[in-house]
Give the backbone structure.
Amino acid sequence: MNKFRRLTVFLAEDNPDDIEIARRAFKRSKLGCDLVIARDGEEALKKLSEPSFHPDFAIMDINLPKLTGLQVLERVRKEKRLIGVPFVMLSASDREEDVRASYELCANSYIQKPVVFEDFVETIAVLEKYWFEVARLPRST
Amino acid sequence: MRILLVEDNAGDARLIEEMLRDVPAAVQIEFAGAASLGVALERLEAEPCDVVLLDLGLPDSQGLDTLVAARERMPDLPIVVMTGFDDEERALRALHLGAQDYLVKGRIESEPLARAIRYAVERNEITAQLNQTMHELETRTEEMESFTYSVSHDLKEPLRTLEAFSGFLLEDYGDVLDEQGRDYLERLGQASARLKDMIEKLLTLSRLGRRPPEVERVDVRQVVEGIIAVNQFTIDERHAEVVIDGDLPPVLGDLSRLEQIFGNLIGNGLKFNQSERPGVTVKLEGTVDGIVTFAVTDNGIGIAEEYHERIFGVFQRLHLREEYEGTGAGLAIVKRAANALGGSIELRSAPGEGSTFLVNLPLYELPHRLSIKRKTGVAA
Amino acid sequence: MTTTTELGRPVEILLVEDNPGDVRLTREALVDGKVWNNLHHAADGVEALDFLRQQGKHTSAPRPDMILLDLNLPRKSGREVLADIKADPTLRSIPVVVLTTSKAEEDVLESYGLHANCYIVKPIDLDQFIRVVQSIESFWLCIVRLPTASAEMAKAS
């Protein structure tokens, strides 16, 4: 991964407060990240279907209007072009069905939304460190 | 009233019938006879009856097994057992197995027999109602718990906003506010931290208050040692001491509930403590009838008698927040977790004399000398 | 200090690895970890699947909460194991982290194509290796929710 290129993080989230929280959390991150936001499932799918759009990382809420995060995930995972993009489900839900369904539909991981902002920042920091420094991702084409 | 008389000896059957016909009864008595358990069940299917008089020695079944088999096939009917044995212990066992009465043949007289039958029917009805009520109560409790759980969970969402945005405000605009403005904001932040704590405690309460799906052998010593290890920093910092005094027997429970029970008690013992060297001792108090009692004793500030009940309530605090931190849910969690395991909590304490919490829990025994009664219903 | 997970039991990890040195290092890194865990080991691909399907000498194996999988394994390769896991409806929800010395782009792509949850290149350097295992722990065991909470938790929600 080119260290000088800014990373593109795709965020599918309908709650405006949570968007602002994520925005601020990413602002404090070490790596420079540009957030691309979709407010509902349909918008998310549309954005992800654009051939020129290839985020470095995707964070998806489950309870999205129109299409749910799981429905978006299911369709996205069929697309070869995005196979190397890590999809992390970030949801307030702690329902076991949601967790299992996420993994079954090939989410890379599932994280429960932290309640406290500092924990949120910490979570984003661990996410970034893990996926961009520890994990090996395919070179984006 | 229709009586099903299950008796293979024709003479005995005849005798019983005659006895009951002699009694001036308010209700008309009708008889149905069966010479074996199999026939009895067939007859029941054809025509329902109100009470069963059951001889234990039948061609297709013998002894208390007859009763067990009969109860299994006709769980809702009152059964009065008749037998040739006058054996008190056997009679008691029959009652535990769900018989309404135990009559010894040859000693049966018509008046008491009629009364036994009437009472059996009445008792059976009352028990059925009781079971029904308990069942409803259980369902309600379960609904209540899952309600508490989902509400607490949903409350996290606005809380996340409250917590984050009061922080943002302070961060971005703190310098344009005067001191009072900043103080107000800080209070908001503290309140949301407390709210978060309370929600977490409610979630813990509703999770641990229910009976665990599985109970197993849990080594209490290991649990307590684990708690000491996790809290070692606080213990050292406060020059405190947590001691296990002697052997701690294993209990039948589940790990997370036991961690909550001992974790909260030990934590409280250290927290509500102004001794120079705060100390908590965990030891075995005794074992009676398969229930083991542990004593968790501290040299803390103690609790006045009048509060002994109140402190086990949810979010009950006896002190100002400035004096001691916390939500006041710890002991409620302890109590509910102990109850969920079929145990209980007692308290011995007075102000200035420290506290001793007695934790009563089912002892783990191998092999099980007596199986823990898990059925909540009353044996009919 | 080890913390109990929300599960009330240790996190069960299956390490599929034929190199005894790497097994030992991984074990060492995880023993000192922050989260209470049990590391199980399968030395080749066939044994790994036996473990997952509770067959052979593994009839009483627990269902792992996550799998660390090497790619180059005797008897059955890591790719095949990965493909089998992700094709099995009872196993596919278990996160698989591919942990291999291979840096080849086609291995990376193929692994993600087979729905590995993550691909990590094993560092040669000892300290770095330990650090990588610890990062795996601090991500998967501390902040990620694994698909295996107890039945009780599932019921409560």
